[in-house]
Amino acid sequence: ASNGGMKMEKTLAMIKPDGLRGNYTERIKGAIVESGFRILEERIVELDEDRASRFYAEHSSRSFFPNLVKYMTSGPVCIMVLEKQNAIADWRALIGPTDSVKAKATHPNSIRAMCGLDSEKNCVHGSDSLLSAQREISFFFEEETVQQL
Ligand code: RTP
Ligand code: MG
C-alpha cells in the first residue's frame, strides 16, 4: 500500500527536568502513543554541565546558553527514541513552538501548551532535522539505533 511517500524515521524526544518534576511523563507518553509513534528506547539520565553543553552546542554563543545549561542540569531527563513515518517533523508539530506562552495561545493541543511555562522551561525537546536526529540519537544510544541512510 502507498504511504504517501513519507519515510519511516526515528527522532530523539526528551522530557526536560520540569516535565519530569511536574509528573507529566505519563501524559506525554500517552500523547506520543496516541499520535502513532513507537517508543523504541527510553532512559532516564542526568546531564552534567559538560554533557548538556555538548548536547546544545549549536546555541553556545547565545545569551540564553548559561541559563539553558542550568535548566537542563537541574534534574533528571527522560530520553526516548521515537519511530513513525515522518517522525521528525511530526514530533516537532506535536510539541509545539519553543515559547510555551505562544504554544498556549496558538497551539493549545501541543505538549508545550500542556506542560511548558515560558520560552525556556518548555518541558520537552525534539530533533529539528534528519541530521540532528541522527546526531542526538547517537549522542545517547548505541550506533545500531541510528537510522541508516
Ligand atoms: P529544543 O531544541 O529543546 O527542542 O527547543 P527548540 O528547537 O524549540 O528551540 P531552540 O532554539 O533549539 O532552543 C533550545 C532551548 O533553549 C531554551 N531557550 N531559552 N530564554 C530564551 O530566550 C530561550 N530560548 C531558547 C529553550 O529551553 C529551548 O527549548
Ligand atoms: Mg532546538
From TrEMBL:
Domain Nucleoside diphosphate kinase-like stretches: 8-148
Subcellular location: Cell projection, Cilium
Documented EC number(s): 2.7.4.6
This protein's UniProt keywords: ATP-binding, Cell projection, Cytoplasm, Hydrolase, Kinase, Magnesium, Metal-binding, Nucleotide metabolism, Nucleotide-binding, Transferase
Group of enzyme by EC: transferase
Catalytic activity: a ribonucleoside 5'-diphosphate + ATP = a ribonucleoside 5'-triphosphate + ADP; a 2'-deoxyribonucleoside 5'-diphosphate + ATP = a 2'-deoxyribonucleoside 5'-triphosphate + ADP
Residues at the catalytic site: 125
Residues the record lists as binding ATP: 16, 64, 92, 98, 112, 122
Record-stated family: Belongs to the NDK family.
Protein name: Nucleoside diphosphate kinase
Gene of this entry: LOC103500680
Residues of the full protein shown: 28 to 176 of 176
